[in-house]
Design goal:
It is a single chain. The protein is 59% helix and 7% strand. By secondary structure, the chain is mainly alpha-helical. Strands 1-2 form a two-stranded antiparallel ribbon. Helix 1 runs antiparallel to helix 2. The chain is elongated, with a radius of gyration of 16 Å.
Length: 90
């Protein structure tokens, strides 16, 4: 099966180096961008719900770091989704 999909890779915001290694495909279908955002934001919400079970400051630090990464990725996906939607409506 061949695909005519052309990739347009955008670096994720939370690449913690001078040379990004994590990207999202801005030309991905809207439904895929939405699903990716939904999964990451949902996972962050689930982590927030278990914060009261964290037993140490180190647990809290690790959970907060993971939440930050997930929310950043989710926001990048939503931003790309919004840009694509706006372009379609222009």
């Amino acid at each position: 099966m061949t695909s005519s999909h052309v990739c347009n890779f955008v670096p994720l915001t939370r690449n913690d180096s001078d040379h990004p290694v994590l990207y999202l495909d801005a030309n991905a279908p809207l439904s895929d961008l939405y699903t990716g955002a939904q999964q990451r934001i949902g996972a962050a919400r689930n982590l927030l719900e278990i914060l009261d079970c964290a037993s140490s400051a180190q647990d809290l630090t690790q959970i907060c770091f993971a939440i930050g990464l997930l929310l950043s990725d989710g926001c990048d996906l939503l931003s790309t989704l919004g840009d694509k939607t706006q372009a379609l409506n222009a």
